[in-house]
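Entry type: protein chain
Record version: 2
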Amino acid sequence: MKYLLLIGFCLLAWAHPAQSRHQDLTILTREQGLGLMREMITAVIMQHEAEMEAFGSRLTDMQGVMQRLTIQAVLDLGKACPASSKLLTQLGLSMAGVNNNLAPAQREAVRAVAQAMCTELAATEVAKPFAQRPAAERLALYWAASAKQLLAHRAALVAAFGAGVVTSKPAKDQLWQYIDVQMFEECPAYTGQLRVDLGLEKQANSRAALPLEAIAPDPV
C-alpha cells in the first residue's frame, strides 16, 4: 500500500504545474509547499479509494496506520522522485524554523558530525538492517551515536559555535537541528526513518500524558 501511494505521488508530482522539471521547487513558500503535498495526498487517496477501503478493513487502528503509512510514503518520495527532494528539504527547514545560513567553519563542523553519525548508523547494518530493527532500538542507536559524536567533535563545535553549544540547551537544540538537516542530505534513509520514529514517540508520549477520557477514539 505504501508503494501505491508513492507511485501516485510521483505521477502527480510530474504532472503538476508547480512541479515542472523547469521550475525550482525551492521558490515555493511553506504554505504553497504544504498545500501542494496535501493536494497530492488527497488526490492519490481519492484515485485509489477502493484499495484504501480494502486495506483499512483489515486494520484495527486505521488512523494510526494510515498516518505512519503516509509519512513513510512522503519520506520515500524524495528517493523515488528526485524532483521532489528540494521541496521536501525546504519544507523541513521551514517547518522547523531553521536558519541554515551558517559560517563556513560552522557548516564544516556540522557536516563532520553528520557524516560521522551516518557512518556509525550504517555500521549497524552489519548485524541487522537498520529499517528492520524496532523503533525503540533505532532511537537508542541514534541517541548513543549522538552522545558519542558530540563528545568526539566537541572542540571543533565549540570553536565554531562558542562554549554555549555544549552547555546551553537552546543552543544545543539549535545545533542538532543543523545536524539533522545535514544528515538528511548525507543519509536520507536513516534520517527519514528516525524522523518518523521520533515523531511517533513524541505523539505517543503526548497522548500518554492526557487524561484517559481525552484520548478516546475519534467518532466515525
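Comment: The chain has two domains: 2-96, 104-208.
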